[in-house]
Specification:
Length: 399
């Protein structure tokens, strides 16, 4: 696993925010990110999203021979895959030390704590037992993978159903889901991990760290607990020492967080069970929101508008006149002629009309007489790119 590079400016900025009890995503020091649990169409397929960290888990089973030292118990095995698809720091091809650490923690959390009854997986003592395999794939890494993996593993095991079997003598018949309903695993309790990170030699404490916070931390402590306040596993790493009061403080916080997480898992399992029994659509495709116009529709919220009038009057600098205060005046009407009037501002129409006009003409004898003549015709030419030109055409009598 490659180490992600973090600049000194980023480290100083994150530490200064933590000292002021602030985090980059707006959470409080003891807040966890939003948890979303969804199940696929197949039993035992679960996807958990913790903020931007996303993990996919699939549970499968097969019939194998038991171990000689425990002939009446089945087996539970875990496999964690960290691919470059989740983060560029993960190397492909071989299992890293971090993946081995997560696998060992899952074994202690689920198998060693007896969360699953392994004796119920026995078919014929000493000959055939069920082997449960849990494959975990990290889809996106944004910090706190261990907590997300533990939630996905226990959710998938609670959602999984193994085929029912019938034993007649030494013959074992495995029934299909159409013949007999699959059998759920015997889950005694739901252990969940809660990660705490320490900064400045244990002076500052955070819950559910992000990727950037994990790069800056001095060390972390992982507490796995169930709703009965039983500690299933505890792991510490880093270059620091913690006193007894700090550990007790973390356990008290873990009790509250574990209760919240288990409630989310149980609610997701209940919703999936209700959808399958009622014949509704279920699976990953139905759990994700559609890309609709109303996808970002929010609920109505109350808005305080008590000081809106004062604020508006201050911005305008004057009061808004009401209808009574506004004086309505009628526009002036000017009579220009018979059947012609003018409303409002403006002058007399200067456009030529088609009416006949009288033009004064002087004859040879020097007498002035009025002769009716048509208006001067105005022709426009647009044969050039310049402005329009006006051409006046005169009759012979006007020359």
């Amino acid at each position: 696993m490659k180490s992600a590079k973090t600049s000194n400016i980023e480290k100083d900025f994150v530490l200064n925010c933590i000292k002021k009890s602030k985090r980059l995503d707006g959470r409080q020091p003891y807040d966890i990110r939003h948890i979303r649990v969804s199940f696929g169409k197949d039993r035992g397929c679960c996807q958990v999203q913790l903020g931007d960290t996303r993990v996919l888990c699939q549970v499968s089973c097969e019939i194998v021979e038991p171990r000689q030292n425990r002939p009446t118990e089945g087996g539970i095995y875990f496999n964690v895959e960290l691919s470059p698809m989740a983060s560029p720091t993960f190397e492909p091809g071989r299992q890293s030390e971090f993946a081995v650490e997560i696998t060992r923690l899952l074994e202690r959390t689920v198998r060693d704590s007896r969360a699953i009854d392994t004796e119920s997986l026995c078919i014929i003592a000493g000959e055939k037992v069920w082997e449960i395999r849990v494959d975990v794939h990290v889809l996106n890494h944004d910090g706190n993978i261990i907590d997300c993996v533990s939630m996905a593993a226990i959710s998938a095991l609670s959602h999984f159903r193994r085929p029912d079997v019938s034993v007649v003598g030494e013959d074992v018949q495995v029934h299909s889901p159409e013949d007999k309903d699959p059998v759920p695993l015997s889950v005694h309790h739901l252990p969940v991990s809660v990660t705490f990170t320490y900064f400045d030699q244990g002076k500052y404490l955070l819950v559910d760290p992000t990727d950037l916070e994990e790069r800056v931390m001095d060390g972390n402590m992982i507490i796995t607990m169930n709703i009965h306040r039983e500690i299933c596993a505890l792991q510490m790493s880093g270059d620091m020492l913690l006193v007894k009061d700090q550990i007790m403080r973390c356990t008290q916080i873990a009790v509250v967080k574990v209760t919240e997480i288990v409630d989310v898992i149980k609610k997701a399992l209940e919703n999936d069970k209700l959808a399958r029994s009622s014949g509704e659509k279920f699976g990953f495709a139905e759990s994700f929101s559609r890309q609709k116009i109303t996808n970002f529709l929010k609920e109505e919220s109350e808005v305080d508008i008590q000081n809106v009038k004062e604020t508006v009057s201050e911005k305008l600098g004057q009061e808004i006149p009401t209808a009574k205060q506004t004086k309505q005046t009628s526009p002036d009407v000017t009579i220009l002629g018979t059947g012609t009037a003018q409303v409002g501002e403006g002058g007399q129409n200067t456009w030529f009309t088609d009416d006949v006009i009288e033009v004064p003409v002087t004859n040879k004898e020097g007498k002035v007489r009025k002769k009716k003549n048509k208006k001067k015709e105005i022709q426009t030419r647009a044969d050039s790119d310049s402005e329009e030109e006006e051409t006046i055409v005169l009759d012979q009598d006007n020359i």
